[in-house]
What we know:
Layout: H1 7-18, H2 23-29, H3 44-52
Amino acid sequence: xxxxxxxxxxxxxxxxxxxxxxxxxxxxxxxxxxxxxxxxxxxxxxxxxxxxxxxxxxxxx
Length: 61
């Protein structure tokens, strides 16, 4: 299964979030580049999941 948001889009989403941009606006700025949903915006839930990956701490640290 192909990911809707690639690493570059995820980094862009993180930078926007760091600048205080709401998740709804972040989702509207991103465009999926490949796959079945090409040229569409990812869902707000997908953007939330990508941003939440940063909140997970390493339990071995």
